[in-house]
Design brief:
- This protein is an alpha+beta fold.
- Helix 6 crosses helix 7, helix 8 packs across helix 9 and helix 8 packs across helix 10.
- It is built from 15 helices and 22 strands.
- The protein folds into three domains: about 30 residues, no CATH class; about 260 residues, Beta-galactosidase, Chain A, domain 5 (Distorted Sandwich), CATH 2.70.98.90; about 240 residues, no CATH class.
- Strands 7, 8, 9, 10, 11, 13, 14, 16, 17 and 20 form a ten-stranded antiparallel β-sheet that branches. Strands 6-5-12-19-18-15 form a six-stranded antiparallel β-sheet. Strands 1-2-3-4 form a four-stranded antiparallel β-sheet, with no helix packed on it.
Length: about 625
Protein backbone atom coordinates (compact mmCIF):
# COMPACT_ATOMS: atom_id res chain seq x y z
CA UNK A 1 0.00 0.00 0.00
CA UNK A 2 1.34 3.30 -1.00
CA UNK A 3 1.22 6.01 1.66
CA UNK A 4 0.94 9.57 0.59
CA UNK A 5 2.18 12.54 2.57
CA UNK A 6 -1.13 13.33 4.30
CA UNK A 7 -1.55 9.71 5.46
CA UNK A 8 1.92 9.68 7.02
CA UNK A 9 1.26 12.94 8.87
CA UNK A 10 -2.09 11.60 10.16
CA UNK A 11 -0.55 8.38 11.46
CA UNK A 12 2.21 10.34 13.22
CA UNK A 13 -0.31 12.64 14.89
CA UNK A 14 -2.39 9.65 16.06
CA UNK A 15 0.73 7.98 17.49
CA UNK A 16 1.75 11.20 19.21
CA UNK A 17 -1.73 11.61 20.69
CA UNK A 18 -1.75 8.02 21.99
CA UNK A 19 1.68 8.43 23.56
CA UNK A 20 0.68 11.73 25.20
CA UNK A 21 -2.56 10.28 26.59
CA UNK A 22 -0.73 7.24 28.03
CA UNK A 23 1.92 9.49 29.64
CA UNK A 24 -0.71 11.82 31.13
CA UNK A 25 -2.73 8.95 32.69
CA UNK A 26 0.37 7.32 34.16
CA UNK A 27 1.45 10.63 35.73
CA UNK A 28 -2.05 11.20 37.11
CA UNK A 29 -2.18 7.74 38.71
CA UNK A 30 1.26 8.21 40.20
CA UNK A 31 0.31 11.58 41.64
CA UNK A 32 -2.89 10.12 43.18
CA UNK A 33 -0.85 7.32 44.72
CA UNK A 34 1.56 9.85 46.20
CA UNK A 35 -1.24 12.01 47.60
CA UNK A 36 -3.14 9.15 49.24
CA UNK A 37 -0.85 8.84 52.30
CA UNK A 38 -0.76 12.60 52.67
CA UNK A 39 -4.53 12.71 52.93
CA UNK A 40 -4.40 10.08 55.66
CA UNK A 41 -1.91 12.23 57.59
CA UNK A 42 -4.40 15.08 57.80
CA UNK A 43 -7.05 12.88 59.41
CA UNK A 44 -5.14 10.13 61.22
CA UNK A 45 -2.47 10.62 63.87
CA UNK A 46 -1.22 7.16 64.99
CA UNK A 47 0.07 6.87 68.55
CA UNK A 48 3.76 6.41 69.25
CA UNK A 49 3.36 2.65 69.85
CA UNK A 50 1.83 2.22 66.39
CA UNK A 51 4.69 4.16 64.79
CA UNK A 52 7.22 1.94 66.49
CA UNK A 53 5.32 -1.17 65.53
CA UNK A 54 4.96 -0.26 61.88
CA UNK A 55 8.64 0.66 61.72
CA UNK A 56 9.63 -2.74 63.06
CA UNK A 57 7.13 -4.94 61.19
CA UNK A 58 5.33 -3.42 58.20
CA UNK A 59 1.76 -4.58 57.62
CA UNK A 60 -0.58 -4.04 54.68
CA UNK A 61 -2.23 -1.12 56.49
CA UNK A 62 1.10 0.56 57.36
CA UNK A 63 1.27 4.36 57.02
CA UNK A 64 4.37 4.52 54.80
CA UNK A 65 4.71 8.31 55.33
CA UNK A 66 5.09 7.81 59.07
CA UNK A 67 7.76 5.18 58.44
CA UNK A 68 9.71 7.54 56.18
CA UNK A 69 9.34 10.44 58.63
CA UNK A 70 10.61 8.28 61.46
CA UNK A 71 13.64 7.30 59.43
CA UNK A 72 14.37 10.92 58.57
CA UNK A 73 13.22 12.91 61.61
CA UNK A 74 13.55 10.36 64.39
CA UNK A 75 11.90 11.49 67.64
CA UNK A 76 10.37 14.54 65.87
CA UNK A 77 8.67 12.51 63.13
CA UNK A 78 5.20 13.48 64.26
CA UNK A 79 6.09 17.16 63.74
CA UNK A 80 6.67 16.55 60.02
CA UNK A 81 2.95 16.75 59.42
CA UNK A 82 0.81 19.81 59.83
CA UNK A 83 -0.71 22.91 58.32
CA UNK A 84 1.02 26.28 58.02
CA UNK A 85 -0.49 29.00 60.17
CA UNK A 86 0.75 32.40 61.31
CA UNK A 87 1.16 34.08 64.68
CA UNK A 88 1.62 37.86 64.89
CA UNK A 89 3.60 39.85 67.46
CA UNK A 90 3.24 43.61 67.29
CA UNK A 91 4.16 46.81 69.11
CA UNK A 92 4.00 50.44 67.98
CA UNK A 93 7.21 50.11 65.93
CA UNK A 94 7.24 46.68 64.31
CA UNK A 95 4.93 43.82 63.34
CA UNK A 96 6.50 40.37 63.24
CA UNK A 97 4.70 37.41 61.72
CA UNK A 98 5.80 33.88 62.69
CA UNK A 99 5.05 30.75 60.69
CA UNK A 100 4.18 27.41 62.29
CA UNK A 101 6.10 25.78 59.43
CA UNK A 102 9.62 26.01 60.78
CA UNK A 103 8.52 28.00 63.82
CA UNK A 104 10.43 31.08 62.66
CA UNK A 105 10.00 34.48 61.03
CA UNK A 106 7.74 34.87 58.04
CA UNK A 107 7.84 38.69 57.79
CA UNK A 108 8.93 41.82 59.64
CA UNK A 109 7.16 45.11 58.92
CA UNK A 110 8.33 48.50 60.20
CA UNK A 111 5.37 50.72 61.05
CA UNK A 112 7.34 53.98 61.24
CA UNK A 113 8.69 53.84 57.68
CA UNK A 114 7.19 53.55 54.22
CA UNK A 115 8.61 52.49 50.88
CA UNK A 116 9.66 55.35 48.59
CA UNK A 117 6.74 56.86 46.69
CA UNK A 118 4.29 54.48 48.38
CA UNK A 119 2.14 54.20 51.50
CA UNK A 120 3.27 50.60 52.13
CA UNK A 121 5.29 49.95 55.25
CA UNK A 122 8.90 48.82 54.85
CA UNK A 123 9.30 45.03 54.77
CA UNK A 124 12.75 43.81 55.80
CA UNK A 125 12.74 40.91 53.33
CA UNK A 126 10.81 39.19 50.58
CA UNK A 127 8.54 36.65 52.26
CA UNK A 128 8.83 34.32 49.28
CA UNK A 129 12.63 34.11 49.74
CA UNK A 130 13.16 33.76 53.47
CA UNK A 131 14.67 30.92 55.50
CA UNK A 132 15.57 30.79 59.18
CA UNK A 133 16.08 27.31 60.52
CA UNK A 134 18.18 25.01 62.66
CA UNK A 135 20.28 22.47 60.77
CA UNK A 136 21.49 19.24 62.36
CA UNK A 137 22.69 15.77 61.42
CA UNK A 138 21.08 12.67 62.90
CA UNK A 139 23.15 9.61 63.95
CA UNK A 140 21.78 7.85 60.85
CA UNK A 141 23.46 10.51 58.67
CA UNK A 142 20.27 12.33 57.66
CA UNK A 143 20.62 16.15 57.52
CA UNK A 144 17.48 17.75 58.92
CA UNK A 145 16.19 21.32 58.68
CA UNK A 146 13.78 22.68 61.25
CA UNK A 147 11.77 24.50 58.58
CA UNK A 148 10.58 21.05 57.45
CA UNK A 149 8.78 20.63 60.78
CA UNK A 150 5.50 22.08 62.01
CA UNK A 151 5.44 23.88 65.34
CA UNK A 152 2.51 24.28 67.69
CA UNK A 153 2.11 27.89 68.90
CA UNK A 154 1.21 28.63 72.49
CA UNK A 155 -1.38 31.21 73.46
CA UNK A 156 0.03 34.73 73.22
CA UNK A 157 0.99 36.09 76.60
CA UNK A 158 2.21 39.45 77.92
CA UNK A 159 4.61 40.24 80.71
CA UNK A 160 2.67 42.07 83.42
CA UNK A 161 5.57 44.38 84.29
CA UNK A 162 7.03 45.17 80.87
CA UNK A 163 4.14 44.46 78.50
CA UNK A 164 6.39 42.33 76.28
CA UNK A 165 4.46 39.92 74.05
CA UNK A 166 5.60 36.29 74.07
CA UNK A 167 4.79 33.13 72.15
CA UNK A 168 6.25 29.61 72.22
CA UNK A 169 6.58 27.61 69.01
CA UNK A 170 7.07 23.92 69.79
CA UNK A 171 7.78 20.94 67.51
CA UNK A 172 6.50 18.02 69.57
CA UNK A 173 7.87 14.50 69.43
CA UNK A 174 5.87 11.34 70.02
CA UNK A 175 7.28 11.38 73.51
CA UNK A 176 6.03 14.46 75.38
CA UNK A 177 9.46 14.82 76.99
CA UNK A 178 11.11 15.31 73.60
CA UNK A 179 10.59 18.57 71.72
CA UNK A 180 12.23 21.52 69.98
CA UNK A 181 11.05 24.95 71.01
CA UNK A 182 11.54 28.55 69.91
CA UNK A 183 10.42 31.21 72.41
CA UNK A 184 9.95 34.72 70.96
CA UNK A 185 9.50 37.85 73.06
CA UNK A 186 8.83 41.21 71.39
CA UNK A 187 9.81 44.11 73.60
CA UNK A 188 7.10 46.81 73.81
CA UNK A 189 9.10 49.96 72.96
CA UNK A 190 11.91 48.63 70.78
CA UNK A 191 12.85 46.83 67.59
CA UNK A 192 14.15 43.85 69.57
CA UNK A 193 12.79 40.30 69.46
CA UNK A 194 14.42 38.12 72.11
CA UNK A 195 14.67 34.47 71.10
CA UNK A 196 15.34 31.32 73.09
CA UNK A 197 16.02 27.92 71.51
CA UNK A 198 15.30 24.90 73.70
CA UNK A 199 16.19 21.32 72.70
CA UNK A 200 14.60 19.05 75.29
CA UNK A 201 15.23 15.30 75.43
CA UNK A 202 16.99 15.33 72.05
CA UNK A 203 20.55 14.69 73.21
CA UNK A 204 20.71 11.47 71.16
CA UNK A 205 19.05 13.06 68.13
CA UNK A 206 20.66 16.35 67.16
CA UNK A 207 24.19 16.37 68.56
CA UNK A 208 25.95 13.77 66.44
CA UNK A 209 27.46 16.71 64.48
CA UNK A 210 27.71 20.47 65.16
CA UNK A 211 24.44 22.38 65.08
CA UNK A 212 24.05 25.47 62.92
CA UNK A 213 21.53 28.22 62.32
CA UNK A 214 20.93 28.97 58.66
CA UNK A 215 19.50 32.40 57.80
CA UNK A 216 18.81 33.45 54.22
CA UNK A 217 16.83 36.51 53.18
CA UNK A 218 16.36 38.58 50.03
CA UNK A 219 16.11 42.32 50.58
CA UNK A 220 13.43 44.39 48.88
CA UNK A 221 14.10 47.72 47.17
CA UNK A 222 12.74 50.45 49.46
CA UNK A 223 14.53 53.57 48.23
CA UNK A 224 14.76 55.80 45.18
CA UNK A 225 17.50 54.42 42.93
CA UNK A 226 18.36 50.72 43.23
CA UNK A 227 22.05 51.26 42.39
CA UNK A 228 22.63 53.69 45.25
CA UNK A 229 20.67 51.45 47.62
CA UNK A 230 22.78 48.42 46.72
CA UNK A 231 25.97 50.40 47.28
CA UNK A 232 25.00 50.68 50.95
CA UNK A 233 23.70 47.14 51.42
CA UNK A 234 25.85 44.31 52.75
CA UNK A 235 26.49 41.94 55.66
CA UNK A 236 28.01 43.74 58.64
CA UNK A 237 29.41 41.67 61.49
CA UNK A 238 31.65 41.64 64.54
CA UNK A 239 33.93 38.81 65.55
CA UNK A 240 34.79 38.36 69.24
CA UNK A 241 36.93 41.21 70.61
CA UNK A 242 37.36 42.69 67.11
CA UNK A 243 36.12 45.85 65.42
CA UNK A 244 33.05 45.87 63.22
CA UNK A 245 33.69 44.53 59.74
CA UNK A 246 31.62 43.99 56.61
CA UNK A 247 31.56 42.21 53.29
CA UNK A 248 31.95 44.13 50.07
CA UNK A 249 29.28 46.78 49.46
CA UNK A 250 27.91 47.11 45.95
CA UNK A 251 29.01 43.62 44.86
CA UNK A 252 28.87 39.98 45.91
CA UNK A 253 31.24 38.51 48.49
CA UNK A 254 31.73 35.43 50.68
CA UNK A 255 33.75 34.98 53.85
CA UNK A 256 34.41 32.22 56.39
CA UNK A 257 35.21 33.61 59.83
CA UNK A 258 38.14 32.28 61.84
CA UNK A 259 36.94 33.71 65.17
CA UNK A 260 33.67 33.30 67.09
CA UNK A 261 30.95 35.64 65.87
CA UNK A 262 29.28 38.15 68.20
CA UNK A 263 26.63 39.54 65.83
CA UNK A 264 25.74 39.98 62.18
CA UNK A 265 23.47 42.46 60.43
CA UNK A 266 21.94 42.04 57.01
CA UNK A 267 22.01 45.72 56.17
CA UNK A 268 19.75 47.19 53.49
CA UNK A 269 20.78 50.81 53.25
CA UNK A 270 18.73 52.43 56.04
CA UNK A 271 17.42 49.21 57.66
CA UNK A 272 18.86 46.02 59.12
CA UNK A 273 17.78 42.55 60.11
CA UNK A 274 20.38 41.54 62.68
CA UNK A 275 21.06 38.49 64.84
CA UNK A 276 22.92 38.95 68.13
CA UNK A 277 24.22 36.01 70.16
CA UNK A 278 24.11 36.11 73.96
CA UNK A 279 27.13 33.80 73.84
CA UNK A 280 29.14 34.00 70.65
CA UNK A 281 28.42 31.76 67.70
CA UNK A 282 31.16 29.22 67.22
CA UNK A 283 34.04 29.91 64.85
CA UNK A 284 33.67 28.92 61.20
CA UNK A 285 30.58 31.03 60.41
CA UNK A 286 30.04 31.44 56.67
CA UNK A 287 28.64 34.76 55.43
CA UNK A 288 27.78 35.74 51.89
CA UNK A 289 25.98 38.44 49.93
CA UNK A 290 24.93 38.28 46.28
CA UNK A 291 23.57 40.86 43.85
CA UNK A 292 20.30 39.74 42.19
CA UNK A 293 19.67 40.38 38.52
CA UNK A 294 16.32 42.15 38.93
CA UNK A 295 15.58 45.68 40.12
CA UNK A 296 13.02 44.71 42.78
CA UNK A 297 15.60 43.32 45.22
CA UNK A 298 18.73 44.76 46.79
CA UNK A 299 20.87 41.80 47.88
CA UNK A 300 20.57 38.12 48.74
CA UNK A 301 22.03 37.52 52.21
CA UNK A 302 23.09 34.17 53.62
CA UNK A 303 24.61 33.12 56.95
CA UNK A 304 25.62 29.68 58.26
CA UNK A 305 26.19 30.08 62.01
CA UNK A 306 27.61 27.17 64.06
CA UNK A 307 26.16 26.90 67.55
CA UNK A 308 28.31 26.17 70.59
CA UNK A 309 25.65 24.02 72.35
CA UNK A 310 26.33 21.04 74.60
CA UNK A 311 24.61 17.66 74.25
CA UNK A 312 22.54 17.89 77.43
CA UNK A 313 18.93 16.93 78.03
CA UNK A 314 17.99 20.61 78.27
CA UNK A 315 20.28 22.32 75.76
CA UNK A 316 19.53 26.01 75.33
CA UNK A 317 20.76 28.98 73.29
CA UNK A 318 19.67 32.62 73.50
CA UNK A 319 19.70 35.31 70.83
CA UNK A 320 18.30 38.71 70.03
CA UNK A 321 16.97 39.83 66.68
CA UNK A 322 17.17 43.53 65.81
CA UNK A 323 14.57 44.30 63.16
CA UNK A 324 14.62 48.02 62.57
CA UNK A 325 16.18 51.19 61.17
CA UNK A 326 19.86 52.06 61.10
CA UNK A 327 19.28 54.98 63.44
CA UNK A 328 22.02 55.75 65.94
CA UNK A 329 19.90 55.93 69.11
CA UNK A 330 17.92 52.80 68.24
CA UNK A 331 21.11 50.83 67.60
CA UNK A 332 22.73 52.20 70.74
CA UNK A 333 19.73 51.13 72.83
CA UNK A 334 20.62 47.49 72.16
CA UNK A 335 23.77 48.00 74.30
CA UNK A 336 25.66 45.73 71.91
CA UNK A 337 29.30 46.64 71.40
CA UNK A 338 30.17 48.10 67.97
CA UNK A 339 26.51 47.81 66.91
CA UNK A 340 26.15 51.52 66.13
CA UNK A 341 28.92 51.09 63.56
CA UNK A 342 26.41 49.45 61.26
CA UNK A 343 25.97 53.09 60.25
CA UNK A 344 29.10 53.80 58.24
CA UNK A 345 29.86 57.36 59.28
CA UNK A 346 33.47 56.99 58.18
CA UNK A 347 36.80 55.90 59.58
CA UNK A 348 38.49 57.25 62.73
CA UNK A 349 38.28 61.06 63.00
CA UNK A 350 35.69 61.24 60.19
CA UNK A 351 33.32 58.97 62.11
CA UNK A 352 34.05 60.81 65.35
CA UNK A 353 33.09 64.16 63.80
CA UNK A 354 29.83 62.73 62.45
CA UNK A 355 28.81 60.85 65.60
CA UNK A 356 29.57 63.53 68.16
CA UNK A 357 29.27 66.80 66.24
CA UNK A 358 27.25 66.69 63.02
CA UNK A 359 24.59 64.13 63.99
CA UNK A 360 23.73 65.71 67.39
CA UNK A 361 23.51 69.12 65.70
CA UNK A 362 21.05 67.81 63.09
CA UNK A 363 18.88 66.09 65.67
CA UNK A 364 18.93 69.13 67.97
CA UNK A 365 17.73 71.43 65.19
CA UNK A 366 15.09 68.90 64.12
CA UNK A 367 13.38 69.41 67.50
CA UNK A 368 12.70 73.03 66.58
CA UNK A 369 12.37 73.02 62.79
CA UNK A 370 10.25 71.03 60.37
CA UNK A 371 12.12 71.70 57.12
CA UNK A 372 15.29 69.64 56.87
CA UNK A 373 16.35 71.72 53.88
CA UNK A 374 16.51 74.74 56.17
CA UNK A 375 18.30 72.64 58.78
CA UNK A 376 20.98 71.81 56.20
CA UNK A 377 21.36 75.52 55.42
CA UNK A 378 21.70 76.39 59.12
CA UNK A 379 24.16 73.54 59.76
CA UNK A 380 26.24 74.77 56.81
CA UNK A 381 26.32 78.32 58.19
CA UNK A 382 27.34 77.05 61.65
CA UNK A 383 30.12 74.89 60.20
CA UNK A 384 31.44 77.78 58.08
CA UNK A 385 31.41 80.06 61.15
CA UNK A 386 33.39 77.49 63.15
CA UNK A 387 35.87 77.17 60.31
CA UNK A 388 36.14 80.91 59.68
CA UNK A 389 39.44 81.41 61.60
CA UNK A 390 40.99 78.73 59.42
CA UNK A 391 39.42 80.31 56.35
CA UNK A 392 40.84 83.69 57.33
CA UNK A 393 44.36 82.23 57.56
CA UNK A 394 43.91 80.70 54.14
CA UNK A 395 42.76 83.97 52.56
CA UNK A 396 45.60 85.88 54.25
CA UNK A 397 48.13 83.44 52.83
CA UNK A 398 46.51 83.84 49.41
CA UNK A 399 46.76 87.63 49.70
CA UNK A 400 50.48 87.40 50.41
CA UNK A 401 50.94 85.17 47.40
CA UNK A 402 49.03 87.64 45.23
CA UNK A 403 51.33 90.47 46.35
CA UNK A 404 54.37 88.34 45.45
CA UNK A 405 52.92 87.21 42.13
CA UNK A 406 54.72 89.82 39.96
CA UNK A 407 58.11 88.88 41.43
CA UNK A 408 57.39 85.17 41.07
CA UNK A 409 56.40 85.76 37.45
CA UNK A 410 59.76 87.52 36.90
CA UNK A 411 61.61 84.52 38.33
CA UNK A 412 59.62 82.18 36.08
CA UNK A 413 60.49 84.34 33.05
CA UNK A 414 64.17 84.63 34.04
CA UNK A 415 64.65 80.88 34.41
CA UNK A 416 62.39 79.82 31.55
CA UNK A 417 64.01 76.91 29.72
CA UNK A 418 66.82 76.72 32.28
CA UNK A 419 67.59 74.47 35.20
CA UNK A 420 64.33 74.00 37.17
CA UNK A 421 66.27 73.44 40.40
CA UNK A 422 67.85 76.89 40.18
CA UNK A 423 64.43 78.43 39.56
CA UNK A 424 63.01 76.65 42.59
CA UNK A 425 65.93 77.78 44.74
CA UNK A 426 65.39 81.39 43.62
CA UNK A 427 61.69 81.14 44.43
CA UNK A 428 62.40 79.73 47.89
CA UNK A 429 64.95 82.50 48.48
CA UNK A 430 62.25 85.08 47.67
CA UNK A 431 59.85 83.46 50.14
CA UNK A 432 62.55 83.46 52.80
CA UNK A 433 63.51 87.06 52.12
CA UNK A 434 59.93 88.34 52.34
CA UNK A 435 58.87 86.14 55.26
CA UNK A 436 56.09 84.47 53.25
CA UNK A 437 55.35 80.79 53.86
CA UNK A 438 54.11 79.21 50.62
CA UNK A 439 52.68 76.28 52.57
CA UNK A 440 50.65 78.43 54.98
CA UNK A 441 47.55 78.07 52.80
CA UNK A 442 47.82 74.28 52.76
CA UNK A 443 47.57 73.86 56.54
CA UNK A 444 44.08 75.46 56.86
CA UNK A 445 42.85 73.31 53.98
CA UNK A 446 44.15 70.17 55.68
CA UNK A 447 42.45 71.17 58.93
CA UNK A 448 39.12 71.57 57.12
CA UNK A 449 39.33 68.22 55.34
CA UNK A 450 37.96 66.05 58.20
CA UNK A 451 34.76 68.10 58.34
CA UNK A 452 34.40 68.33 54.57
CA UNK A 453 34.81 64.58 54.16
CA UNK A 454 32.64 63.89 57.22
CA UNK A 455 29.73 65.58 55.49
CA UNK A 456 30.37 63.44 52.42
CA UNK A 457 29.89 60.34 54.60
CA UNK A 458 27.10 61.75 56.76
CA UNK A 459 24.39 62.43 54.19
CA UNK A 460 24.29 58.96 52.57
CA UNK A 461 24.26 57.30 56.01
CA UNK A 462 21.85 59.40 58.11
CA UNK A 463 18.28 58.10 58.12
CA UNK A 464 16.89 61.36 59.54
CA UNK A 465 16.93 62.84 56.01
CA UNK A 466 15.04 59.92 54.47
CA UNK A 467 11.78 61.04 52.90
CA UNK A 468 12.31 64.72 53.79
CA UNK A 469 11.62 67.13 50.92
CA UNK A 470 12.96 70.58 50.08
CA UNK A 471 12.13 72.74 47.06
CA UNK A 472 12.03 70.35 44.09
CA UNK A 473 13.87 67.54 45.91
CA UNK A 474 11.28 65.05 47.15
CA UNK A 475 13.79 63.05 49.22
CA UNK A 476 16.98 64.64 50.61
CA UNK A 477 18.41 61.17 51.18
CA UNK A 478 18.17 60.36 47.45
CA UNK A 479 19.04 62.21 44.24
CA UNK A 480 16.81 65.04 43.03
CA UNK A 481 15.71 65.32 39.43
CA UNK A 482 14.68 68.31 37.34
CA UNK A 483 14.72 66.33 34.09
CA UNK A 484 14.24 62.61 33.48
CA UNK A 485 15.42 60.71 30.40
CA UNK A 486 13.96 57.60 28.82
CA UNK A 487 17.46 56.19 28.52
CA UNK A 488 20.58 55.83 30.63
CA UNK A 489 23.79 57.76 29.94
CA UNK A 490 26.87 55.78 30.98
CA UNK A 491 28.67 57.24 34.03
CA UNK A 492 25.87 59.80 34.41
CA UNK A 493 22.41 58.28 34.76
CA UNK A 494 18.89 58.77 33.46
CA UNK A 495 18.17 62.16 35.04
CA UNK A 496 19.58 65.63 35.71
CA UNK A 497 20.13 66.56 39.35
CA UNK A 498 19.36 70.25 39.90
CA UNK A 499 21.34 70.63 43.14
CA UNK A 500 24.33 68.91 41.53
CA UNK A 501 24.29 71.40 38.65
CA UNK A 502 24.16 74.31 41.11
CA UNK A 503 26.97 72.80 43.17
CA UNK A 504 29.19 72.30 40.11
CA UNK A 505 28.60 75.89 38.92
CA UNK A 506 29.36 77.33 42.36
CA UNK A 507 32.50 75.18 42.59
CA UNK A 508 33.66 76.51 39.23
CA UNK A 509 33.07 80.15 40.29
CA UNK A 510 34.81 79.62 43.63
CA UNK A 511 37.83 77.97 42.01
CA UNK A 512 38.07 80.82 39.47
CA UNK A 513 38.05 83.38 42.26
CA UNK A 514 40.55 81.55 44.45
CA UNK A 515 42.96 80.47 41.70
CA UNK A 516 42.75 83.49 39.42
CA UNK A 517 45.50 85.50 41.09
CA UNK A 518 47.77 82.67 42.17
CA UNK A 519 51.23 82.17 40.60
CA UNK A 520 51.10 79.82 37.65
CA UNK A 521 53.00 76.57 38.13
CA UNK A 522 55.17 76.06 35.09
CA UNK A 523 57.70 73.53 36.38
CA UNK A 524 58.03 70.43 34.20
CA UNK A 525 55.86 67.62 35.45
CA UNK A 526 53.69 69.89 37.61
CA UNK A 527 49.98 70.09 36.67
CA UNK A 528 48.28 73.36 35.86
CA UNK A 529 46.04 73.81 38.92
CA UNK A 530 43.59 76.10 37.11
CA UNK A 531 42.96 73.43 34.49
CA UNK A 532 42.71 70.76 37.16
CA UNK A 533 40.09 72.74 39.09
CA UNK A 534 38.04 73.30 35.92
CA UNK A 535 38.11 69.58 35.17
CA UNK A 536 37.18 68.83 38.78
CA UNK A 537 34.16 71.14 38.62
CA UNK A 538 32.97 69.40 35.46
CA UNK A 539 33.52 65.89 36.83
CA UNK A 540 31.40 66.70 39.89
CA UNK A 541 28.34 66.75 37.61
CA UNK A 542 28.90 63.06 36.88
CA UNK A 543 30.05 61.99 40.31
CA UNK A 544 27.27 63.64 42.34
CA UNK A 545 24.35 63.18 39.93
CA UNK A 546 23.04 60.11 41.80
CA UNK A 547 24.24 61.13 45.26
CA UNK A 548 21.80 62.31 47.98
CA UNK A 549 20.41 65.74 47.15
CA UNK A 550 21.03 66.83 50.74
CA UNK A 551 24.77 66.40 50.15
CA UNK A 552 24.72 68.49 46.96
CA UNK A 553 22.62 71.12 48.74
CA UNK A 554 25.19 71.29 51.54
CA UNK A 555 28.17 71.70 49.18
CA UNK A 556 26.30 74.29 47.09
CA UNK A 557 25.46 76.32 50.21
CA UNK A 558 29.03 75.98 51.50
CA UNK A 559 30.40 77.19 48.16
CA UNK A 560 28.11 80.21 48.11
CA UNK A 561 29.13 81.17 51.66
CA UNK A 562 32.80 80.75 50.71
CA UNK A 563 32.31 82.97 47.66
CA UNK A 564 30.68 85.62 49.85
CA UNK A 565 33.45 85.36 52.45
CA UNK A 566 36.15 85.67 49.79
CA UNK A 567 34.53 88.74 48.26
CA UNK A 568 33.99 90.44 51.63
CA UNK A 569 37.48 89.68 52.97
CA UNK A 570 39.21 90.88 49.80
CA UNK A 571 37.10 94.03 49.65
CA UNK A 572 36.87 95.07 53.28
CA UNK A 573 39.30 93.16 55.50
CA UNK A 574 42.57 92.54 53.66
CA UNK A 575 44.71 95.55 52.76
CA UNK A 576 47.14 94.33 50.12
CA UNK A 577 48.97 97.66 50.32
CA UNK A 578 49.75 97.02 53.99
CA UNK A 579 50.83 93.49 53.14
CA UNK A 580 53.18 94.86 50.44
CA UNK A 581 54.67 97.32 52.95
CA UNK A 582 55.24 94.50 55.42
CA UNK A 583 56.93 92.39 52.77
CA UNK A 584 59.23 95.25 51.78
CA UNK A 585 60.13 95.73 55.42
CA UNK A 586 60.94 92.02 55.70
CA UNK A 587 63.25 92.28 52.69
CA UNK A 588 65.42 94.73 54.63
CA UNK A 589 65.76 92.19 57.45
CA UNK A 590 65.96 88.83 55.64
CA UNK A 591 65.49 85.78 57.80
CA UNK A 592 68.06 83.07 58.13
CA UNK A 593 67.39 79.79 56.48
CA UNK A 594 65.42 77.42 58.63
CA UNK A 595 66.74 73.93 59.23
CA UNK A 596 64.08 72.54 56.94
CA UNK A 597 64.86 75.03 54.16
CA UNK A 598 68.58 74.26 54.43
CA UNK A 599 68.00 70.52 54.23
CA UNK A 600 65.61 70.98 51.31
CA UNK A 601 68.16 73.10 49.42
CA UNK A 602 70.94 70.60 50.08
CA UNK A 603 68.74 67.74 48.87
CA UNK A 604 67.95 69.68 45.69
CA UNK A 605 71.65 70.34 45.05
CA UNK A 606 72.53 66.68 45.63
CA UNK A 607 69.76 65.59 43.28
CA UNK A 608 70.95 68.02 40.61
CA UNK A 609 74.54 66.80 41.03
CA UNK A 610 73.48 63.20 40.47
CA UNK A 611 71.47 64.25 37.42
CA UNK A 612 74.47 66.12 35.94
CA UNK A 613 76.74 63.12 36.60
CA UNK A 614 74.32 60.77 34.82
CA UNK A 615 74.17 63.12 31.83
CA UNK A 616 77.97 63.10 31.55
CA UNK A 617 78.03 59.30 31.62
CA UNK A 618 75.47 59.15 28.82
CA UNK A 619 77.62 61.46 26.71
Amino acid sequence: MKLDRNTVIGLLLMALFAFGFTWYMSRKQLKEAENAPAQQEQTVTPPAEQVAATTAAPAPSTDTTVVLNTNRYGALATAARGEEKFVTLSNKHVTVKLSTKGGSFHSAELKDFTVYNSDKHVQLWDTTNNVLDLVWKRPSGEVVFSDELFFEPSTLSADASTGAAQVRMRANGANPNQYMEWVYTLEPEAYIVSCELNLVGLENEVFSAPLAIHWNITGLANEKGISAERQKSSVFFREADEDRDYLSEGSGATKTLELPLNWLAMKQDYFSAALIAESNFDKGAQLSVLVPQDSAHTKVYDAQLPLAMNASSNAQAKFKFYLGPNEYNALKATEVEEFTNIIDYGWWIIGWVNKFMIRPLFWFLSDYMVSFGLIILIVTVIIKMVLFPITWKNFLSGAKMRVLKPEIDEINKKYEGKDPVEKQQATMALYRQTGVNPFAGCIPVLLQMPILYAMFRFFPAEIVLRGKSFLWAEDLAAYDSILDFNFNIPMYGDHVSGFTILMAISTFIYSKMSMGSQPTMTQPGMPNMKVMMNIFSFMMIFFFNSMPSGLSLYYFTANMISIGQMWAIKKYFIDEGAIRAKIEENKKKPKKKSGFASRLEEAQKASQARLDANKKKLK
